[in-house]
Amino acid sequence: MLVSASWDLTIKLWEVASGHLRQTFTGHTDRIQSLVWSPDGHMLASSSRDTTICLWDIERGNALVALQGHTAKVYSLAFTPDSRSLLSGSEDGSLRLWDVGSWQCVCAMQGYTASLYDIDWSPDGSQLASGGTDTLVNIWDVTGKMQPRTLRGHNGAVTGVGWSPDGRFLASSAWDDVISLWNPISGACVERQQDPDDPNTFFYGAAWSPDGQCIASGTYLHGVVVWEIAAQRRRWIGRQLQAWIRHVLWSPDGARLVSGGDDGHLLVWDASDGKLLQRIQGHHGGITSVAWSSDGTWLASGSSGQGQGDSGEQFVWEVQSGARTSL
């Protein structure tokens, strides 16, 4: 199954194999901004400009509850790995932690004044990392027992944060030609990587390989970059297309890497050496999201419209052949 949300106020559930629409959910009264599956696959959470968060029961096909507490648009959502808690981020300057079982807000972290570009849970679900326009990386203790820790060192907006699979390190990327590796306990920066060819590279995103050995990042007009952590060197860089690469994602087995850019192209790379395996074309607007299926045989992608008010596009691709299914 694949789920999509839209500014038309609907959420739609699709059968990927057939491309058929299975169900449409309605309930929000303003544009839907974010949509996430719970890790156990039983529930969906959606957020909207109407300031609410809705939880949906997939098996029964109905809304469970509308969570209220934010006072402005809710832009981001993230479940904890055990599916028991949900974190939400809003334009009202707060992060809220919700207990899914009781539908109650158990913690509100107030006072964030920067725009957040990325958030990521630690593997054990006890901490949350965030990065934004204030150039800072913040680590939040979701229990509220400890004050947030602030990691300083970037000189540009932090566009990506990502925990290593084992939770030992936190990576951040920024618009200052730096990808930083942090010790989340001490707060020390243990490694800094820069593009050796261009000091004006803007990095976008920080994606760990499944084995925790490499970090991939997109860039503004400088392709896709993969770094080896242990060797502290750049493994490869792909510059086939001069586009803003906003999304980079490893395949579940770590053998391939997909990138999506503002030119509407999906590129599939050999993760070991950077060989371009496929160039998938079909979108008319910039790529806004990419997702692998769990077995690595399918790719889903979404894009924006070409102009103001244009409808976006959503496609599913069979990776081996590059064949497209339109939803």
Q: Rounded to an integer, what's the Rg over CA atoms?
A: 19 Å
Low-confidence stretches: none
The largest β sheet comes out as: 4 strands, antiparallel
Q: Total strand count, please?
A: 31
| SS-based class | mainly beta
Q: Tell me, rounded to a whole number, the average pLDDT.
A: 89
- Head-to-tail CA distance between termini: 12 Å
Work out the strand percent: over 45%
Draw up the topology in text:
Elements: E1 2-5, E2 10-14, E3 21-26, E4 32-37, E5 43-48, E6 53-57, E7 62-67, E8 74-79, E9 85-90, E10 95-99, E11 104-109, E12 116-121, E13 127-132, E14 137-141, E15 149-151, E16 158-163, E17 170-174, E18 179-182, E19 189-193, E20 203-208, E21 214-219, E22 224-228, E23 233-238, E24 245-250, E25 256-261, E26 266-270, E27 276-280, E28 287-292, E29 298-303, E30 313-318, E31 323-326
Antiparallel strand pairs: 1-2, 2-3, 4-5, 5-6, 6-7, 8-9, 9-10, 10-11, 12-13, 13-14, 14-15, 16-17, 17-18, 18-19, 20-21, 21-22, 22-23, 24-25, 25-26, 26-27, 28-29, 29-30, 30-31
